[in-house]
Design brief:
By secondary structure, this protein is of the alpha+beta class. The protein has a single domain, classed as Gcn5-related N-acetyltransferase (GNAT) (Aminopeptidase). 27% of the residues lie in helices and 23% in strands. A hairpin with a 5-residue loop joins β3 and β4. The protein is globular. The chain starts with 5 loop residues before the first helix and ends in an 8-residue tail after the last strand. Bound molecules: coenzyme A. The site of coenzyme A has 17 residues, from β5, α4 and α6.
């Protein structure tokens, strides 16, 4: 398929088309909603103050500066979870990805006051339904929420990781993976429908 023959050129073109199509429409933010909440990939809606504050209360992102949060948002596909009535942001997740082969899910968090009401599951259903996530190998690291991710097709698997160098310029950023956690690797199924 990948040799230099004429038919392989066609195969490569077909492959390229196949790879590009799933996210051709991603120029437009995606949104999916329930009666009281919605999830959107519109970066303009994100409340950086909320995201910075709630991440700093997690076990993996304590001490992450607002600038680093902002830069990580700029370089990721971000999912905001919002209350419809107040338009207040109450959850967040982001995907770091090459958009064709691999994606990494991180910073999944729901406002403490809104937990245990199914919102984490709503957020996750939107994440795994996103064409980039459903079309790539998606991985994550967690120390205790395996049960949540297993509901969305993630399976436990051992991975290697290299922590960032302390002396590198981005030293204010914390490590990309969760602390000391076994990672789970999986290709994600589609669960929710984007509109
Ligand atoms: C994890 C988190 C996003 C879940 O959000 P939530 O709105 O409380 O979750 P939901 O109400 O949708 O339910 C989560 C489901 O996953 C399950 N689950 C498994 N491990 C869990 C964990 N560590 N925390 C929360 N839920 C967990 C719950 O039992 C529940 O399943 P059920 O409905 O069958 O009982 C939220 O608790 C949170 O922000 N926690 C702090 C940050 C965090 O730990 N993020 C994940 C780290 S990788």
């Amino acid at each position: 398929m990948y040799s230099n023959s004429g038919s392989s050129v066609l195969s490569r073109q077909t492959l390229a088309t196949h790879l590009v199509q799933p996210y051709q429409n991603l120029a437009h933010p995606m949104r999916t909603e329930t009666e009281e909440h919605f999830v959107s990939t519109d970066a303009a809606l994100l409340d950086v103050d909320f995201i910075h504050a709630v991440l700093n209360r997690t076990y993996w992102a304590q001490g992450r500066s607002r600038e680093v949060v902002q830069e990580s948002i700029r370089n990721s596909i971000c999912f905001g979870l919002y209350e419809k009535a107040s338009q207040r942001q109450v959850g967040f997740a982001r995907i770091v990805t090459d958009k064709v082969t691999f994606s990494w899910l991180c910073d999944v968090v729901v406002d403490e006051k809104c937990r245990r009401k199914g919102l984490g599951k709503f957020l996750m259903s939107c994440v795994v339904a996103h064409p980039v996530v459903s079309g790539t190998l998606c991985m994550l690291g967690t120390s205790d929420a395996h049960g949540l991710y297993e509901k969305y097709g993630f399976r436990r698997s051992e991975q290697m990781k290299r922590p960032r160098n302390q002396g590198e310029p981005n030293k204010s950023a914390d490590s990309m993976t969760s602390v000391g956690a076994p990672s789970a690797a999986v290709t994600c199924p589609s669960v929710a429908k984007w509109n």
